[in-house]
Amino acid sequence: MIAGYSVVGKPLPRVDGKVKVTGEGKFAADMMLANMLHGKILRSPHPHARIVKIDTSKAEALPGVKAVITGKEIGPIRFAFVDTPRYPADQYPLAIEKVRYVGDEVAAVAAVDEITAAEALERIEVEYEPIPAVFDPEEALKDGAPKVHDEIVPTTTCAWEDWGVNKPARPFKAVNNICTTVSMAYGDIDKGFAGSDYVREDRFVLPATAHAAIEPHVVAASYDSNAGKLDVWISHMSLAVKQYWLSKTLGIPVSKVRIHTCFTGGSFGGKIELFSHDFLAAYLSRKTGRPVKIVTSRHEVFTNCRLSHRFIIDLKTGVKKDGTIVAQHVKLINDPGAYRGSSPVVMLLAHTFRIPLYRIPNWKHEGVGAYTNKPVCMPKRGHGSPQMSFAAEQQLDMIAEHLGIDPAELRLKNVRKTGEVLPNGDRLDSCGLTTGIERAVKATKWKEKRGRGRSNYRGIGMGLAAMFSGSMYYPFSSSAIVKLNLDGTATLYSGQSEFGQGCSTVLSQIAAEELGLTLDDIILVAGDTELCPPDIGGFLSAGVYCSGEAVRRAAADAKQQLLVVASEMLEENVDNLRVSSGRISVMRAPEIEVSYADVVRHSIQSHNGDPVVGKGHVKPVPEVEFYPSLSKGGARFTNAYGFTVAVAEVNVNPDTGKVNVLKVTIADDCGQPINPKNVHGQLLSQAIMGVGDALFEEVVTKEGRVMNPSFDDYKIASVYETPEFVHVPTDSFEPKGPFGGKEVGECARAAVIAAIANAVADAIGARIYSLPLTPEKVLEALESGGN
Amino acid sequence: MIAGYSVVGKPLPRVDGKVKVTGEGKFAADMMLANMLHGKILRSPHPHARIVKIDTSKAEALPGVKAVITGKEIGPIRFAFVDTPRYPADQYPLAIEKVRYVGDEVAAVAAVDEITAAEALERIEVEYEPIPAVFDPEEALKDGAPKVHDEIVPTTTCAWEDWGVNKPARPFKAVNNICTTVSMAYGDIDKGFAGSDYVREDRFVLPATAHAAIEPHVVAASYDSNAGKLDVWISHMSLAVKQYWLSKTLGIPVSKVRIHTCFTGGSFGGKIELFSHDFLAAYLSRKTGRPVKIVTSRHEVFTNCRLSHRFIIDLKTGVKKDGTIVAQHVKLINDPGAYRGSSPVVMLLAHTFRIPLYRIPNWKHEGVGAYTNKPVCMPKRGHGSPQMSFAAEQQLDMIAEHLGIDPAELRLKNVRKTGEVLPNGDRLDSCGLTTGIERAVKATKWKEKRGRGRSNYRGIGMGLAAMFSGSMYYPFSSSAIVKLNLDGTATLYSGQSEFGQGCSTVLSQIAAEELGLTLDDIILVAGDTELCPPDIGGFLSAGVYCSGEAVRRAAADAKQQLLVVASEMLEENVDNLRVSSGRISVMRAPEIEVSYADVVRHSIQSHNGDPVVGKGHVKPVPEVEFYPSLSKGGARFTNAYGFTVAVAEVNVNPDTGKVNVLKVTIADDCGQPINPKNVHGQLLSQAIMGVGDALFEEVVTKEGRVMNPSFDDYKIASVYETPEFVHVPTDSFEPKGPFGGKEVGECARAAVIAAIANAVADAIGARIYSLPLTPEKVLEALESGGN
To answer: Alpha-carbon distance B7 to B583, whole Å?
Structure first.
């Protein structure tokens, strides 16, 4: 903990805690608008089929049904997470000629209540002509495989063109179902391997998992034809993304799409993008002239609201005898499902989050994404990092074992340090990896425990992960406004949104600290596109480093204005004034002071009515550069990365193959924790999520159909599986973050998964190359060469 | 009309028109909050009585009643329109020891519905001991008259002390019921009269009238004990005033009292201050833990929601033979009723609005206010100006008649001109009086019509009035924020509120004009204390000159930021760029251009995420000076006054005494009309209101009881009495107003009343010295010396 702060660094309770505990907090599902209709969506029962005919007449005839729509009516509007000249958007709100996965949207209804809407769905008659489907990405890449997409002709202006890249979008043809390719390198990979003492190659397989947020996806939309304005209450992570895509798909100017403040009940990446149901609610509202709400079912969340990315990773690493990593070649096969989803992004990020960890002088990263007739994949907490960590951190352990070096020592030898510049130009202004490994080793008594597993089926393992703190993605920066009130309190306007990550509290703390006020003195207006200045929102882990720093700068601007007026009132130079507890005093004579309230009044009275309003903005790196510089291992992102060193301790039942995660220790570098309680919560939640990922989670499909679309069948880690959790701070400080803060919410999950995998290997003396580490796989590994 | 504007000066339809016409617009009475209770107030049936005992037990026992409160519980909390060290607040939310007028608040209830609340009121048993009352102000001033108030000990910090005047409030003793005194002068009054060729003295009597806004007074209050925060939806004219007084009386910090945006259905000054019911709704919400709404009845609006000020005016004026005014002595007796109301302010303003009209070198203004046991008086459109105009403009006509000068000529000789500096230091940056008189004379064929009345009972008369454009009252200035959106539109944040005056449209026009956008491109966020920067609000006629100029400055700030970024994009100096239709182009080559949308994106991309947010603030005069400088005829207010020259044409039925106002012509100086349609509406509404004031309106009391508390018994001018209306612009331009604009909403009413009075005198050849000009008075005047 850094000394000298009053509000920052304190484990203050959440500012949104009370309204959530009392049930007063409004989520999108709580919205009850006058005359509101309820929307429901008819979905494809087939993984791949032509739509021969849709007859909606019986549904339309049902009393209480106000609208029934199909893809024919809506037309070829397209949207996607990625929409670039290279990769034009490939999703439709409603399928037009064919359906591509089980659950694909086919028709939608708006009715006076949910039961009527559900009954209407049953009355829609769709005639399908099933066609051959493909479910395996390697099969999909073969000549002659069923084609999931025909040529995709961009029908809307390319999003990235809007954002300033003036390259025309071209029709996209998915030859052999290839939806994405990526190829980046630096150094000389061949020379690297040639100069290695030991080269190792392994294949790892990662399944799709669910985000499992407690709130399902919800949207309430109200279109006002008089004003030409769309008001929306929606489960989201970024106001900017939802606003942009609603504007684009509906043809309503951005400023006429208002996303209103409401809480989002967990996202983990799963609520970033536009969903069909978001568009459909808005479309149905415009069509019917009434507000329309769509609440997805848990089944829909599992099948249609995206999954984490499936990967096959071929990983080849070359090292010197002493453990120095010399070269690495990553080959990815990504299966994003029936639409591209975030495939181009996750392929890029899969390496982005590894590069800051280890110095690897020669490196190549190649990947291909293949459409299949399966549910679609999108970011999930770490977006590519957990998959790559599972592979690369296990392989490191295997290399260490081969070389006879302690895996912690091997990591210490190769990890990056503060001040290093990455191949893309990003500089690590702070990096707590070395400290983190050292402290984690000490805290866990690593050296005593490591390598003893084979005698008692207990194991200990380590995993490392990194995560950027915001990036230059999209033209969104973070900005904030701070208005001083007549009673000396401050109102903070931020475009960040609270989806459980704690931004309301943390941003308020930052404003309070900078202004010398208490948390109670900050009134927060956030999460509303109309009321707040633009902000990138809650993804890219931009909360503290970007939004937080924008808030700090806005508060600093306001404080400077206060100081100038106080200087006049106290007849003392600004440099001789001190700010504390909402008062400004003369340093040499602290009894001479004025309150903020006095200063604000004086400013209004004597400065021609000037109220005190401060502005702040921030963008992590200044360059306007959208496309990855392939020769530098990608474009710049930020100068601040968060780091996690996780150590997991497990035991394994050799008879049942069941793994228990006993303890997770995390030495993290999130810079100065703005709120240690929130940091603890973020890390603990990732430890628990990591246990689930490592041991249970997989969305299982059979012929494209999700077999476990409920919490009965899809197990997440519960209180029974929650391990003992130890948090070891690294006392880091990010010089450009607000009060030294940076990323904390996304990094650790990847490290925990890897640590558990390595701990299981330590316990059983054998490797498992795919997730989850089911009892079956453990028993198989034990049989094939384990303890 | 000034050429060269695109949006300003155009008769654009109101931006709030559609939601009002469709019924979508929310007024306070439309607020339906979950679990909301309904409040009602028990009022005194006596004009003056001691409260012996209140038994609330039967009311409390009624099912559905959630709270019953009396003055004993609330205690001696006091509030008022005026609360200074000299004049401490004298109103209680609920009477404690005695009631002072019929309607005084005695108890309040909150119940699950209005019927239950009404029934609960009937079950409250109050034992009164009636005591002698006084109803006539001159009687009240006599020794031995019943005392309406005992010593008033200030119980809360004086409001003005909060606002920076650090004088302690003293107990106030109303000797002989004197609640206010005023005495101001400049020049030498005795010398002035001594040097006059003709001196005339008259007494005029002005009754109380009602504001007659169509919406009754409403408040919905919701106190959140978790957050310590009060949310309020309320009929109001100024967010700042309601917020301040709710904060002060309830002991909640200003920033924790949020007034939410809702429309107010007309105010005319009648909804400025805090009312008991406002406080009581908030108090009852805090007490019950549920939202509480109070909707006043029309009866309550008439008896308890304030009236215009009653005046007895003794006016003495001395002139030279040629009509030059040399001296004027004004003596006022004001009867504000049972509480001081705005007495100190109206006594000050009664002359403030006359000084800018005529050059009068020697002048004295004295006044006394006397408590009586009658309903309380407050500002009404013009606040003192209509009363004084009725007196002074009639007396000018009588002087003109005596001197044999055309009254229009007499006025032309004496009216002030652009550039003149008033005794208090205010400079008339624009003054259209001369032009106005000349054009009105021409437009009405004045010279042909004037003085012919006695033959056909038709008459024509003129009246002049002035009104400031905002003032330095309170520490409130006007401020605004303009945020540019990614689609090139702009969001405007203003603390002004829409109460029918048209500010939403006009402020949006100003922002659009400054930014080179259309009205549709402006998104307005206004009328909410939490979302908007501080603004004085809708009184003091500050809308255009203060709030409007703040908006213009905020837009100009944003435009300058756009120009700087565009200059970089176009590689051209800012001075060589032109702004038009949301685009910035190079002057010498207009085809080289960028859109605002491009510029905003570029700013965010290339300026470290800088969004375009502009700020503006304004205060009409810079001085910090609260108390009138008595030797200068008062403190400074502003450099911009609005002026009206009204000409009325009437006929009189000599048999019935009934007056018909046939035509009203107004030559007004509101500077450049921002929206001519709105200016027309403001002036027409004042012509109609003036007809009502002149002919019908008087709240009649008998033994303190209002005899006509309904629209059945209190007649306002209807469509049948609406005269032909002609608006003659004076093509004025206020150099410091936004695009030349200034005051338009308050001035004309006073001029119209005076013009009608003078026209009636012209028609019947006799004077009536009191309002309204009822048939009885007309017949009496005719009999006593008329035609």
So the answer is: 16
Structure tokens at A477: 């920066």
Q: Which residues, listed in sequence order, are joined to residue A706 by a DSSP beta bridge?
A: A701
pLDDT (mean) for A390-403: 98
% chain A with pLDDT above 70: 95
Which of A474, A604, A625 has the most B C-beta neighbours within 10 Å, making it the best mutation to test the interface with B?
A604
Which residues contact residue B384 at a Cβ distance below 8 angstroms, ignoring those fewer than 6 apart? B309, B346, B347, B348, B349, B350, B352, B353
* Local structure of residue B462 (DSSP, 8 states): E
The confidence score (pLDDT) of residue A245 equals: 93
Among residues A271, A695, A256, which one has the least CA distance to residue A499?
Answer: A271
Q: Which of B32, B531, B736 to mutate to test the interface with A (most CBs of A within 10 A)?
A: B531
Structure-block tokens of residue A228? 């030409």
pTM for this predicted structure: 0.93
Report ipTM (2 d.p.).
Answer: 0.88
- From the list B487, B534, B624, the residue facing A606 with the nearest CB is B624
Report the 3 state secondary structure along B405-431.
CCHHHHHHHHECCCCCECCCCCECCCC
Q: Measured on CA atoms in the order B410, B412, B413, B418, is the torsion positive or negative?
A: positive
Which of A164, A478, A604 lies closest to B476 in CB terms? A604
Torsion of CA B718, B719, B724, B725, to 10 degrees: 70
Length of chain B: 787
Using DSSP's 3-state secondary structure scheme, residue A50 falls into: strand
Give the Å distances, CA to CA, from A567 to A512, A591, A603.
21, 15, 11
Q: CB of B106 within 8 A of CB of B69?
A: no
Residue with tokens 């609610």, as numbered in its chain: A281
End-to-end CA distance of chain A: 43
Q: Tell the burial category of A675 from Cβ atoms under 10 Å away from its Cβ (0-12, 13-18, 19+).
A: buried
DSSP state letters, B612-637: -EEEEEE-SS-----S--GGGTS---
Q: Of A747, A706, A698, which Cα lies nearest the Cα of A309?
A: A698
Contact flag A617-B602 (C-beta cutoff 8 Å): no
The residues that bridge with B646 in the sheet, in sequence order, are B463, B666
Beta carbons of B608 and A602 less than 8 Å apart: no
Spans in chain B with pLDDT lower than 50: 1, 158, 160-161, 163-166, 624, 626-627
Nearest CB to A619; choose among B164, B608, B618: B608
Distance CA A221, CA A498 (A): 20
Asked if A78 contacts A156 with a C-beta cutoff of 8 angstroms, the reply is: yes
Cβ-based neighbours of B21, under 8 Å, separated by 6 or more: none
Find, among B537, B573, B660, B561, the residue nearest to B614 by Cα: B561
> How many CB atoms are closer than 10 A to CB A598?
17
| pLDDT, tens digit, 9 for 90 and up, residues A663-698 | 999 999 999 999 999 999 999 999 999 999 999 999
- Region A299-323 average pLDDT: 97
User: What are the residue ranges of helices labelled H in A415-538?
Assistant: 433-444, 446-449, 453-456, 503-515
A257-259 and B229-234 beta bridge pairing: unpaired
Q: What does the angle CA A601 – CA A606 – CA A611 come to, to the nearest 5 degrees?
A: 50
Task: Using CA coordinates, name the residue in chain A closest to B226.
Answer: A18
* Bridge partners, B593 (sequence order): B585
- CA B330 from chain centre, in angstroms, equals 23
